[in-house]
Amino acid sequence: MNTPPVIAVQPYLFFEGRCEEAIEFYRKAIGAEIVMLMRFKESPDQSMCAPGTGEKIMHATLKAGPSLFMLSDGRCGGKQTYDGFALSVSAADEAGAQKMFTALSEGGKATMPLTKTFFSPAFGMLTDKFGVGWMVIVHSMPPA
């Protein structure tokens, strides 16, 4: 079997009507930048769009550091769930990790406080106000 090489695996999150709010939250919390944003009203095939969703976000791509992640309002159903995974974000140092952890936790819930562990000088887990799980980590440098 001749399998093509993987270029990247990128998360795609559906916010069921709260995507614009999520984008602003992630811009502030982790410094994400909008790379691309398309609203349903910009779709060339309006038959695929539910009535009243014109201003909702059909597709957006955000960049955080070197990583890309994608978001959408999806079907605008109002109920989103994020089970079985977490997004991991790396900070350069403990101060940066604390800043991101605090910002991502706003309106959400810390499930493991940011603390020193055997594998990191700062690691913590949380669920943000949208229900997305996050792990914030400072990667340890191997001894010289």
Description of the structure:
The chain has 144 residues and is α/β, with parallel strands linked by helices. 17% of the residues lie in helices and 33% in strands. The strands form 2 sheets. It has a 4-stranded mixed β-sheet, with helices on one face. Strands 5-8-7-6 form a 4-stranded mixed β-sheet, covered by helices on one side. Helix 1 packs antiparallel against helix 2. The model has no long low-confidence stretch (mean pLDDT 93).
Give the radius of gyration.
17 Å
Order of helices and strands: EHEEEEHEEE
Q: Which percent band covers the strand fraction?
A: 25-35%
Q: Give the strand tally.
A: 8
Please state how the strands of the largest beta sheet are arranged side by side.
1-4-3-2
Which structural class matches the secondary elements?
alpha/beta
Shape annotation: globular
Average pLDDT, all residues: 93
Q: Give the terminus-to-terminus CA distance.
A: 42 Å
**Helix coverage percent of residues?**
10-25%
**Poorly predicted ranges (pLDDT <50, ≥5 residues)?**
none
Largest sheet: 4 strands, mixed
Count of helical regions: 2
